[in-house]
């Protein structure tokens, strides 16, 4: 049985908008910051999952209509809680538990990369929650099509801004380490980072 930290709200208390995972996680980081000490917040991370092709296969996704529940996203974002003996994933878009262990998430949602073409291999940008709260911004323009229509209905609250920046989401989605937001890992490095 997974021991859930008290500082992290249950799924039904979280702000959620379909197809805006980066904002859902930002809002979760914000809620956790209000509920915990700075020491506890240091155990919390935002993780962007993408690659240079922007083709990220993930299984057990609620948005999927196929039997394997597979979706190939351009990117996805999850919240993680990590303590010395606990690695938990909080993903409002998966059919798995909220939370589930990192081991469960990797096994069910990420799978074995050796079965995939290299263009589908996932990379992981790991950002401390406090850093994510203070550096992320999105004007949601990436969710508009060529006719300036929404690809998915945006959240009702105003776009997230930081330090005079209106939009830097592309720097987080990019798996180029030079963007200076957190650290970028391949799958094996990511698992080692969280001692799996």
TrEMBL record:
Sorted UniProt keywords: Hydrolase
Protein name, as recorded: Protein N-terminal glutamine amidohydrolase
A matching Pfam family: Nt_Gln_amidase
GO cellular component terms, A-Z: cytosol; nucleus
Cross-referenced InterPro entries: N_Gln_amidohydro_ab_roll_sf, NTAQ1, Prot_N_Gln_amidohydro_ab_roll
Catalysed reaction, written as an equation: N-terminal L-glutaminyl-[protein] + H2O = N-terminal L-glutamyl-[protein] + NH4(+)
Domain Protein N-terminal glutamine amidohydrolase alpha beta roll: 16-194
Role summary: Mediates the side-chain deamidation of N-terminal glutamine residues to glutamate, an important step in N-end rule pathway of protein degradation. Conversion of the resulting N-terminal glutamine to glutamate renders the protein susceptible to arginylation, polyubiquitination and degradation as specified by the N-end rule. Does not act on substrates with internal or C-terminal glutamine and does not act on non-glutamine residues in any position.
Source organism: Biomphalaria glabrata (Bloodfluke planorb)
């Amino acid at each position: 049985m997974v021991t859930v930290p008290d500082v992290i709200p249950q799924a039904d208390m979280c702000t959620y908008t379909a197809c805006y995972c980066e904002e859902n996680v930002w809002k979760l980081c914000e809620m956790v910051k209000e509920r915990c000490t700075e020491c506890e917040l240091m155990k919390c991370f935002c993780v962007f999952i993408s690659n240079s092709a922007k083709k990220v296969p993930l299984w057990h996704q609620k948005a999927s209509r196929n039997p394997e529940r597979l979706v190939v996203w351009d990117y996805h974002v999850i919240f993680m809680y990590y303590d010395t003996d606990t690695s938990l994933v909080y993903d409002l878009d998966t059919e798995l538990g909220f939370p589930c262990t990192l081991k469960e998430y990797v096994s069910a949602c990420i799978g074995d990369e050796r079965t995939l073409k290299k263009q589908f291999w996932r990379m992981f940008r790991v950002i401390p929650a406090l850093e994510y709260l203070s550096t992320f911004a999105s004007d949601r323009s990436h969710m508009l099509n060529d006719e300036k229509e929404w690809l998915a209905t945006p959240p009702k609250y105003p776009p997230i801004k930081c330090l005079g920046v209106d939009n830097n989401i592309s720097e987080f989605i990019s798996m180029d380490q030079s963007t200076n937001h957190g650290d970028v890992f391949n799958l094996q490095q990511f698992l080692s980072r969280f001692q799996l």
